[in-house]
Amino acid sequence: MLEGKAVIEDTDMPDKMQIQAMASAYEALDLYDVFDCTSIAAHIKKEFDTKYGSGWQCVVGSSFGCFFTHSKGTFVYFTLETLNFLIFKGASYLI
Amino acid sequence: MLEGKAMVKETDMSPKMQIHAMASASQALDLYDVYDCISIAAHIKKEFDSVYGNGWQCVVGSNFGCYFTHSSGTFIYFALETLNFLIFKGTSS
Fold first, then answer.
1. Which of A38, A67, A71 sits opposite B66 (nearest CB)?
2. Where does the pLDDT of residue B1 fall: very low under 50, low under 70, confident under 90, or very high at 90 and above?
3. Which UniProt keywords apply (chain B) (predicted)?
4. Spatial distance between the Cα atoms of A85 and A81, rounded to a whole number of angstroms
5. Most buried among A36, A73, B48, B54, by the most CB within 10 A?
6. What is the extent of the structural domain holding A79?
7. If DSSP codes are grouped into helix, strand and coil, which group holds residue B11?
8. How many structural domains is chain B composed of?
């Protein structure tokens, strides 16, 4: 992997899951062009749906703001190269 | 409202809900600065949670890509001024 080190901005995920998130991001950046944000997000979301159950959401880009409700312990926001990554599992009901 | 007309890019929402989404976005742009994407997204998400039940997600920005699973009939993606808006109700499983 040629990418630099990812920097976590905010998270409530367990450490192991954080590492998985960043590994998925590295993998996606190897597979897709840096401008193809949707394919990068798709790759990460599909991997998380497979490993941790369905319902994951992923936002990738250089300029965005979000407001969302997420399940506890499933949120990570980090930067890698020129992109920001947001991964979380959406919650339909507030707990 | 001083904003121009919103342009829907993709949706599976009912027309009534679409109008509500765009009205909510226009309202948010009246209240907040165009650079304050999070407050704009917050305004829209909170309104949708209040009116249509919890679980809504909102992404606002000029450069982003997403991949997500949403409940049927709850997805809209539109452009308004310089920003793109994505609103959907996430599904937990």
1. A38
2. very low
3. Cytoplasm, Cytoskeleton, Dynein, Microtubule, Motor protein
4. 10
5. B48
6. 5-88
7. strand
8. 1
Confidence of residue B26 (pLDDT cuts 50, 70, 90): very high
- Chain B, residues 5-34, CB within 8 A of chain A, namely none
Which of the listed ranges A83-92, B48-57, B66-75 does the model predict with the highest average pLDDT? B48-57
Is A82's Cβ below 8 Å from some Cβ in B? no
Q: Which residues of B61-79 are buried (b: 16+ CB within 10 A; e: fewer)?
A: bbebbbbbbbbeebbbbbb
Residues of chain A with pLDDT under 70: 1-4, 92-95
CATH number at residue A83: 3.30.740.10
Q: Which amino acid is at B84?
A: N
Q: Which residues of A touch B91 (CB under 8 A)?
A: 54-55, 90, 92
CB contact under 8 A, B69 and A60: no
Please give the pLDDT value at position A53.
Answer: 87
Q: How far apart are CA B58 and CA A90, in angstroms?
A: 11
Number of domains in chain A: 1
Domain of B74 in residue numbering reads as: 7-90
CATH of the domain at B66: 3.30.740.10
CB contact under 8 A, B92 and A37: no
> Do residue B66 and residue A59 have CB atoms under 8 angstroms apart?
yes
